[in-house]
Amino acid sequence: MYFSRNNNNNNNNNNNNNNNNNQHAYTYISMIDYSGQPHYLVAVDCIVFGFDGEHLKILLVKRGLEPEKDKWSLIGGFLGPAESPDDAANRVLKKNTGLEGIYLEQLQVYGAPTRDPIERTLSVGYFALIDINKYKTQINDDFHAEWFLINERPKLIFDHDQMVTDARKKLRYKAALHPILFEMLPKKFTIPQLQTLFEEVNDTKIDTRNFSRKIASTGLLLKLEEKDKSGSKKGAYYFKLDKKKYQANIQEFLNLLPSVKLTEQP
Prior knowledge:
Oligomer: single chain
CATH superfamily of the largest domain: Nucleoside Triphosphate Pyrophosphohydrolase
Number of helices: 8
Order of helices and strands: HEEEEHEEHEHHHEEHH
Protein backbone atom coordinates (compact mmCIF):
# COMPACT_ATOMS: atom_id res chain seq x y z
CA MET A 1 0.00 0.00 0.00
CA TYR A 2 2.77 2.39 0.94
CA PHE A 3 4.58 1.74 -2.33
CA SER A 4 1.38 2.19 -4.27
CA ARG A 5 0.67 5.59 -2.67
CA ASN A 6 4.22 6.79 -3.35
CA ASN A 7 3.90 5.59 -6.91
CA ASN A 8 0.67 7.58 -7.31
CA ASN A 9 2.34 10.66 -5.85
CA ASN A 10 5.22 10.25 -8.22
CA ASN A 11 2.81 9.88 -11.11
CA ASN A 12 0.90 12.99 -9.97
CA ASN A 13 4.13 14.96 -9.70
CA ASN A 14 5.14 13.80 -13.15
CA ASN A 15 1.73 14.77 -14.52
CA ASN A 16 1.96 18.22 -12.90
CA ASN A 17 5.43 18.72 -14.32
CA ASN A 18 4.20 17.65 -17.74
CA ASN A 19 1.25 20.05 -17.50
CA ASN A 20 3.52 22.92 -16.50
CA ASN A 21 5.89 22.09 -19.33
CA ASN A 22 2.96 21.94 -21.75
CA GLN A 23 1.70 25.34 -20.56
CA HIS A 24 5.13 26.90 -20.99
CA ALA A 25 5.46 25.29 -24.39
CA TYR A 26 2.00 26.58 -25.41
CA THR A 27 2.86 30.10 -24.28
CA TYR A 28 6.15 29.98 -26.14
CA ILE A 29 4.53 28.64 -29.30
CA SER A 30 1.78 31.28 -29.07
CA MET A 31 4.37 34.04 -28.80
CA ILE A 32 6.16 32.65 -31.82
CA ASP A 33 2.85 32.51 -33.72
CA TYR A 34 2.09 36.18 -32.94
CA SER A 35 5.58 37.43 -33.73
CA GLY A 36 5.69 35.51 -36.98
CA GLN A 37 2.50 37.02 -38.40
CA PRO A 38 2.52 39.88 -40.92
CA HIS A 39 1.25 43.27 -39.77
CA TYR A 40 -1.34 45.28 -41.69
CA LEU A 41 -2.50 48.88 -41.60
CA VAL A 42 -6.02 49.64 -40.41
CA ALA A 43 -7.91 52.69 -41.65
CA VAL A 44 -11.39 54.17 -41.26
CA ASP A 45 -13.35 55.73 -44.13
CA CYS A 46 -16.50 57.80 -43.58
CA ILE A 47 -19.34 58.14 -46.07
CA VAL A 48 -21.04 61.39 -45.06
CA PHE A 49 -24.56 61.70 -46.50
CA GLY A 50 -26.31 65.06 -46.37
CA PHE A 51 -29.62 66.55 -47.52
CA ASP A 52 -30.07 70.20 -48.50
CA GLY A 53 -33.86 70.15 -48.81
CA GLU A 54 -33.75 69.09 -52.45
CA HIS A 55 -30.96 66.60 -53.07
CA LEU A 56 -29.12 63.75 -51.37
CA LYS A 57 -25.41 64.57 -51.41
CA ILE A 58 -22.10 63.11 -50.31
CA LEU A 59 -19.16 64.92 -48.73
CA LEU A 60 -15.77 64.36 -50.38
CA VAL A 61 -12.20 65.63 -50.05
CA LYS A 62 -9.15 65.57 -52.27
CA ARG A 63 -6.58 63.06 -51.05
CA GLY A 64 -3.47 64.72 -49.69
CA LEU A 65 -0.94 61.91 -50.08
CA GLU A 66 0.25 59.31 -52.55
CA PRO A 67 -0.98 57.12 -54.05
CA GLU A 68 -3.89 58.87 -55.83
CA LYS A 69 -2.89 62.29 -54.47
CA ASP A 70 -5.32 65.13 -55.35
CA LYS A 71 -8.03 62.69 -56.43
CA TRP A 72 -11.45 62.61 -54.79
CA SER A 73 -11.80 60.45 -51.72
CA LEU A 74 -14.01 59.65 -48.80
CA ILE A 75 -13.00 61.24 -45.52
CA GLY A 76 -10.61 58.84 -43.85
CA GLY A 77 -7.48 58.21 -41.83
CA PHE A 78 -5.48 55.53 -40.06
CA LEU A 79 -6.33 53.89 -36.76
CA GLY A 80 -4.17 55.12 -33.87
CA PRO A 81 -2.43 52.65 -31.51
CA ALA A 82 -4.73 53.49 -28.58
CA GLU A 83 -7.96 53.93 -30.55
CA SER A 84 -10.99 51.80 -31.29
CA PRO A 85 -12.37 52.07 -34.85
CA ASP A 86 -15.29 54.13 -33.50
CA ASP A 87 -12.89 56.53 -31.77
CA ALA A 88 -10.84 56.87 -34.95
CA ALA A 89 -13.91 57.57 -37.10
CA ASN A 90 -15.07 60.31 -34.75
CA ARG A 91 -11.56 61.82 -34.62
CA VAL A 92 -11.16 61.75 -38.41
CA LEU A 93 -14.54 63.41 -38.96
CA LYS A 94 -13.85 66.15 -36.44
CA LYS A 95 -10.34 66.81 -37.78
CA ASN A 96 -11.37 66.98 -41.44
CA THR A 97 -14.85 68.51 -41.24
CA GLY A 98 -15.37 69.84 -37.72
CA LEU A 99 -18.36 67.51 -37.38
CA GLU A 100 -19.00 65.90 -34.01
CA GLY A 101 -21.99 64.54 -32.15
CA ILE A 102 -23.68 63.44 -35.39
CA TYR A 103 -25.30 60.15 -36.43
CA LEU A 104 -22.46 57.73 -37.23
CA GLU A 105 -22.78 53.99 -37.80
CA GLN A 106 -20.30 51.28 -38.72
CA LEU A 107 -20.89 49.80 -42.17
CA GLN A 108 -18.46 46.90 -42.73
CA VAL A 109 -14.79 46.02 -43.15
CA TYR A 110 -13.10 46.20 -46.56
CA GLY A 111 -10.04 44.03 -46.90
CA ALA A 112 -9.36 43.02 -50.49
CA PRO A 113 -5.61 42.26 -50.73
CA THR A 114 -5.09 44.72 -53.60
CA ARG A 115 -7.35 47.58 -52.43
CA ASP A 116 -4.32 49.77 -51.59
CA PRO A 117 -1.40 49.45 -54.04
CA ILE A 118 1.21 50.64 -51.52
CA GLU A 119 0.59 48.43 -48.49
CA ARG A 120 -1.99 45.91 -47.31
CA THR A 121 -4.65 48.02 -45.57
CA LEU A 122 -7.95 47.04 -43.98
CA SER A 123 -10.57 49.76 -43.87
CA VAL A 124 -13.54 49.98 -41.52
CA GLY A 125 -16.32 51.84 -43.30
CA TYR A 126 -18.78 54.18 -41.53
CA PHE A 127 -21.70 56.25 -42.73
CA ALA A 128 -22.84 59.54 -41.23
CA LEU A 129 -26.06 61.55 -41.71
CA ILE A 130 -26.38 65.33 -41.43
CA ASP A 131 -28.56 68.28 -42.38
CA ILE A 132 -26.34 70.14 -44.86
CA ASN A 133 -27.76 73.58 -44.14
CA LYS A 134 -26.83 73.21 -40.47
CA TYR A 135 -23.13 72.70 -41.22
CA LYS A 136 -22.65 74.17 -44.71
CA THR A 137 -20.60 77.26 -43.83
CA GLN A 138 -18.42 75.42 -41.33
CA ILE A 139 -17.52 72.60 -43.72
CA ASN A 140 -16.95 74.65 -46.86
CA ASP A 141 -15.03 77.57 -45.35
CA ASP A 142 -12.88 75.89 -42.75
CA PHE A 143 -12.11 72.42 -44.09
CA HIS A 144 -12.34 72.62 -47.91
CA ALA A 145 -14.52 69.53 -48.18
CA GLU A 146 -17.08 69.62 -50.99
CA TRP A 147 -20.62 68.32 -51.44
CA PHE A 148 -21.58 66.39 -54.58
CA LEU A 149 -24.90 65.04 -55.79
CA ILE A 150 -24.88 61.35 -54.89
CA ASN A 151 -25.50 60.27 -58.51
CA GLU A 152 -23.12 62.82 -60.04
CA ARG A 153 -20.07 62.40 -57.86
CA PRO A 154 -16.59 62.08 -59.41
CA LYS A 155 -14.86 58.72 -59.56
CA LEU A 156 -13.36 57.90 -56.18
CA ILE A 157 -10.06 56.26 -55.26
CA PHE A 158 -9.53 52.60 -54.36
CA ASP A 159 -12.81 50.86 -53.45
CA HIS A 160 -14.54 54.00 -52.16
CA ASP A 161 -17.26 53.86 -54.83
CA GLN A 162 -18.19 50.39 -53.61
CA MET A 163 -18.33 51.74 -50.06
CA VAL A 164 -20.77 54.44 -51.17
CA THR A 165 -22.97 51.87 -52.92
CA ASP A 166 -22.98 49.63 -49.85
CA ALA A 167 -23.69 52.55 -47.52
CA ARG A 168 -26.65 53.68 -49.60
CA LYS A 169 -28.14 50.17 -49.51
CA LYS A 170 -27.65 50.06 -45.75
CA LEU A 171 -29.22 53.51 -45.40
CA ARG A 172 -32.35 52.37 -47.26
CA TYR A 173 -32.63 49.31 -45.06
CA LYS A 174 -32.10 51.16 -41.80
CA ALA A 175 -34.46 53.98 -42.84
CA ALA A 176 -37.27 51.43 -43.05
CA LEU A 177 -36.66 50.33 -39.47
CA HIS A 178 -35.63 53.50 -37.66
CA PRO A 179 -36.27 57.24 -38.08
CA ILE A 180 -32.68 57.89 -39.12
CA LEU A 181 -33.58 59.95 -42.21
CA PHE A 182 -34.82 62.67 -39.89
CA GLU A 183 -31.15 63.20 -38.95
CA MET A 184 -30.85 64.87 -42.36
CA LEU A 185 -33.80 67.20 -41.82
CA PRO A 186 -34.09 70.29 -39.64
CA LYS A 187 -36.19 69.90 -36.50
CA LYS A 188 -39.16 71.38 -38.36
CA PHE A 189 -39.76 70.43 -41.99
CA THR A 190 -42.50 70.30 -44.62
CA ILE A 191 -44.15 67.23 -46.13
CA PRO A 192 -42.68 68.06 -49.57
CA GLN A 193 -39.19 68.11 -48.02
CA LEU A 194 -39.78 64.74 -46.37
CA GLN A 195 -41.10 63.24 -49.61
CA THR A 196 -38.11 64.54 -51.55
CA LEU A 197 -35.74 62.99 -49.02
CA PHE A 198 -37.47 59.60 -49.30
CA GLU A 199 -37.31 59.81 -53.09
CA GLU A 200 -33.63 60.73 -53.09
CA VAL A 201 -32.59 57.98 -50.69
CA ASN A 202 -34.61 55.30 -52.51
CA ASP A 203 -33.86 56.68 -55.98
CA THR A 204 -37.52 56.59 -56.99
CA LYS A 205 -40.55 58.84 -57.45
CA ILE A 206 -43.47 58.74 -55.01
CA ASP A 207 -46.99 59.94 -55.81
CA THR A 208 -47.45 63.22 -53.90
CA ARG A 209 -51.10 62.74 -52.92
CA ASN A 210 -50.57 59.17 -51.79
CA PHE A 211 -47.48 60.09 -49.80
CA SER A 212 -49.20 62.99 -48.02
CA ARG A 213 -52.25 60.85 -47.27
CA LYS A 214 -50.21 57.93 -45.95
CA ILE A 215 -47.97 60.16 -43.86
CA ALA A 216 -50.99 61.88 -42.33
CA SER A 217 -52.67 58.54 -41.59
CA THR A 218 -49.70 57.30 -39.53
CA GLY A 219 -50.09 60.04 -36.92
CA LEU A 220 -46.31 60.04 -36.56
CA LEU A 221 -45.85 63.72 -37.35
CA LEU A 222 -46.86 66.68 -35.23
CA LYS A 223 -48.24 69.61 -37.23
CA LEU A 224 -46.96 73.04 -36.22
CA GLU A 225 -48.65 76.42 -36.58
CA GLU A 226 -45.84 77.86 -38.69
CA LYS A 227 -45.69 77.75 -42.47
CA ASP A 228 -42.87 77.73 -45.00
CA LYS A 229 -43.81 80.39 -47.55
CA SER A 230 -40.59 80.31 -49.54
CA GLY A 231 -42.24 78.32 -52.35
CA SER A 232 -45.68 79.97 -52.52
CA LYS A 233 -47.88 82.57 -50.86
CA LYS A 234 -50.12 79.85 -49.48
CA GLY A 235 -47.15 78.09 -47.94
CA ALA A 236 -46.73 74.60 -46.48
CA TYR A 237 -47.13 73.76 -42.82
CA TYR A 238 -44.10 72.68 -40.84
CA PHE A 239 -44.09 69.34 -39.03
CA LYS A 240 -41.84 67.57 -36.55
CA LEU A 241 -41.40 63.88 -35.79
CA ASP A 242 -43.07 62.30 -32.78
CA LYS A 243 -40.24 59.85 -32.03
CA LYS A 244 -42.08 57.95 -29.30
CA LYS A 245 -45.03 57.29 -31.55
CA TYR A 246 -42.71 56.33 -34.38
CA GLN A 247 -41.17 53.53 -32.33
CA ALA A 248 -44.61 52.25 -31.35
CA ASN A 249 -45.99 52.33 -34.90
CA ILE A 250 -43.03 51.34 -37.03
CA GLN A 251 -45.12 49.19 -39.37
CA GLU A 252 -46.96 52.27 -40.61
CA PHE A 253 -43.72 53.64 -42.01
CA LEU A 254 -42.79 50.28 -43.50
CA ASN A 255 -45.98 50.41 -45.56
CA LEU A 256 -44.62 53.48 -47.33
CA LEU A 257 -41.77 51.36 -48.71
CA PRO A 258 -43.34 47.99 -49.54
CA SER A 259 -40.29 46.82 -51.48
CA VAL A 260 -38.12 46.65 -48.34
CA LYS A 261 -37.63 43.08 -47.09
CA LEU A 262 -36.67 43.10 -43.46
CA THR A 263 -35.32 39.55 -43.60
CA GLU A 264 -32.73 40.52 -46.20
CA GLN A 265 -30.33 42.95 -44.58
CA PRO A 266 -27.66 44.23 -46.99
